[in-house]
Amino acid sequence: MHHAVDFIQDLAVIMLLAGIVTVIFNRFRQPVVLGYIVAGVIIGSYTPPFSLIHDEKTISILAELGVVFLMFSLGLEFSLRKLARVGVTAVVAALTEIILMLWIGFEIGRFFEWKLMDSLFLGAMLAISSTTIIVKALDELGLKREKFAQLIFGVLIVEDILAIGMIALLSGIAITGSVDTSEATFTLGKLLLFMVVSLVVGILLVPRAIAYVAKFKSSEMLLVTVLGLCFGFCLLVIKLGYSVALGAFLIGAIIAEARQLHMIERLVAPLRDMFSAIFFVTIGFLLDPNVIISYLGPIAIITVAVVIGKIVSCSVGSFLSGQDGRTSMRVGMGLSQIGEFSFIIAALGLSLKVTSDFLYPVAVAVSVITTLLTPYLIRGADPFTQWLGRMMPGRVSYVLTQYTKWLQSIHLSGDSAALMAVVRRILLNVAVNLAIVVAIFLGGAFFFKQFAKLMSPWILAVAAQSTVVWGGALLLSLPFLVAVYRKLKSLSLLLVELSVPSNLAGRYTLHVRRVVAEILPIAAMVGVMLLLAVLSASILPSTEMLLLTGIAAVCLAVVLRSWFVKMHAKLQIALKETLEQQNDIQNGGHS
Amino acid sequence: MHHAVDFIQDLAVIMLLAGIVTVIFNRFRQPVVLGYIVAGVIIGSYTPPFSLIHDEKTISILAELGVVFLMFSLGLEFSLRKLARVGVTAVVAALTEIILMLWIGFEIGRFFEWKLMDSLFLGAMLAISSTTIIVKALDELGLKREKFAQLIFGVLIVEDILAIGMIALLSGIAITGSVDTSEATFTLGKLLLFMVVSLVVGILLVPRAIAYVAKFKSSEMLLVTVLGLCFGFCLLVIKLGYSVALGAFLIGAIIAEARQLHMIERLVAPLRDMFSAIFFVTIGFLLDPNVIISYLGPIAIITVAVVIGKIVSCSVGSFLSGQDGRTSMRVGMGLSQIGEFSFIIAALGLSLKVTSDFLYPVAVAVSVITTLLTPYLIRGADPFTQWLGRMMPGRVSYVLTQYTKWLQSIHLSGDSAALMAVVRRILLNVAVNLAIVVAIFLGGAFFFKQFAKLMSPWILAVAAQSTVVWGGALLLSLPFLVAVYRKLKSLSLLLVELSVPSNLAGRYTLHVRRVVAEILPIAAMVGVMLLLAVLSASILPSTEMLLLTGIAAVCLAVVLRSWFVKMHAKLQIALKETLEQQNDIQNGGHS
Fold first, then answer.
1. B569 lies in a domain?
2. Domain span including residue B486
3. Is 0.90 exceeded by the ipTM?
């Protein structure tokens, strides 16, 4: 009972102060997030006269829930369609920004002779801009619907995905203690695989489950179901060794495909607001003024680096991908701050015990300063562009204008564009199917011990057990392998028709074409099987058994071919329907 | 980090199971609450194979938040206006039910030779019916808009208020260890005083603060402000020694007067649903099947007592207050179960360490059985009434019908009704003003030490300090005292006119009337001042100082009379406006 009193006192202090400070901040048109951090500094243990918080452990757990709900909401707003619309610019600008900022951050850390891990985490902290702060700033300036704002949102989505990967990578590096590129590639590969498979399986299952629950017309049941899915998936992700932030984002992106998205967003928003307020306030707790005073130099240098580095990298990235100078500059100036992701990454470093204590307050200080600058930078973008235009030598600006014009002129059109689209669709299809197959085999290897235990009453020999598991994985994969084979065949037919012109092989043209079109997919399938063998090495049966299983599988595939095709088509249609259904509803909801 | 993982695992297990079980329960048309409890039993440590919960402390804190949000939502739905509409019946039925069930529960406890405290808490647990279960049941049966349903809601509101008092009383009894009636009366009086003062002050301040924040049009800020007010007030209530449930209910009732009520209800609902789910699931944790098996006898007897006792007491109560037989029986049968309040009271007993461990699972078991019976009882009310009508001797049913007719015939009407309304309004006004005055003096006595410390640099003598504090309290109270005096004077004028008929005193009539009308309020004011002197005994100055202060106050009151009246009128208008504003919006919202 007394413990609960402590806790309610903590919540009362946090919420009251957060409320008062945010009202003041809003009154002076500063972002709410800053208000929370200031409230945290006031409450925190570093500012006199005394700490107002009694039950720090429970509060820190609620702050963790804040990260879950922040990332979950971000996932709900995520959409592959939105991403496709701003496509190339977003990817180029985000990649330029992240690579440049990672490098700048790392170099600054090395310059101050910080530890390797500190420098690496500093780089990661500077790499990602703050979605919440930009959205709030653009909203307050009334620029949310402008073209450059759409580009900024695109860059932010790409950044979020890359940040998720970065969190996974940093965890891996922190645990193994070394920057092993092959290891990193493998980690990133596994991560991508996990993301693709959980998206596909999730989008097949979750919206259907939610639709079923929604039929009862009880927002309480819907909320509890959504929370169950959210925390359940987070738990799975944690058990697989990834961060809870990744899990919350992914399940959010999956649930975003449910027809009931708008209802769910409305139900989750208060939870996000309450817990994210606690999260941002606890960030303020950790702000030790003494640390800030003694690290004034680094903070100033990092702030300048963030502002200039982000403006340059994002503007150049946008410009290179074909935007005009003014839009590029506005994109760059909008993205020049760091925010919630930096805190998440800083908290990751602290919880993994690989970074020094000063890194967190430094990140918060830089974030506070750059956040304060954001609205002024956005407003200053146009005057700065004009000034830059006047200062630039005529020849340079002529070359730049020609570049933009040239890029816009080389867009594919007509037949070749349609062909590219077909090829792209086939390759995407093959990649998704292969990801599922790989996941099945990796899952078999991962859970082999559990399977073996289940089989032990009937099958004792380990060799026999591994044959059964491997064979089972192969059986499960068959529909997807058949689909991959068929898609590869149609792709090779297409390629062959283009690359073996009829005048080259003369009267053998048709013959040559058919042979190549048959050989190419079979060769690819052999490659796939070799890859699978490597990935499932730990449960690979003996050579004879493998041969037998393989032949049985091929026979089965040939015999049940049409059934497999039908089943796979059904799954594919279900997936497509879910994705397109959502589309309808969203358009309906906004119109 | 690892701790947060434990916690997320707990949340995942709770939410996933709660989601699945509630879907199943909803499928078979049973209340969601039962589903949560069953999910809790499955998760709980008493059911094999092992406990699925790792961080029981944090989960129990979140369950406590469930109580806060449940009571807060109840407060948001509470309305003095709604209560006035069903008035007499609700009060009579609720009082009959609570007194009878308290007695039955206590006697059952004594019969089984349980401890005195156990018996007392058992009585309290059986006294209150379950709002959530009744609302769900009536909703599912489609009877929510019937007349008896409105009566049931009225009874529930009165019960909720009395339950709040009961929680305070039980805490007091548990701490002092004795059932001291004068102590209990004093406690209840202090509680009533606290409730009235916080309602008046709260309704004056809180809706204005919320309206100010709402101007920023940010639902995030509104939510944080509301949560800050909620937890802040809960903290104050806890510090004053009352339960957090009372605090949450009161601040909810205050915030219910804000113009933004509907928005706030929408924002708080997901928080309530999430945390109350955790609360109900944790109830299931404590359900030890062994306890239930060994207490099968008491559970059966208590269940029968709850069903029959509540049907009889509520039906008789409704009937006595003038409802017809059929409606009375429907009210009684709807109210015959126990629910969330019983758990809150059981949890109170456990946390105060005055009740035995078996009481909680017994209460949960009885609640589960009576909840399951509720829909059948509601549906069975009409057939049962008909059967009862056939079985009743003709003369009895004739007498009963005549009683109903007689009661309905004696309703006041015309002039006397209007007069009663005026007198009632004046008395209410006096009571509220006096409550504020009493609160000011009690506050002065309570915080005397803090005030004394503040004054110590200038005034050292304790006698002088107490004179300043007492005088200050008197000064603050003056506007309210002046208002009380004026209201009492108009009341005595009214009464004198009625009770001193012109033919009695002949030509002295006017004179007698004026003297009586002057003396009565002055006598009453002297009584009030004596009461204040008793209440503030600890800070009462010496007799001379008291006399001086009193004379100064009277002079001030006479001189500044009109200013005080104006100020008081302003406050009163502000209060009235808030209450009526809300009325507009609510009607607007529902039409």
1. no
2. 414-559
3. no
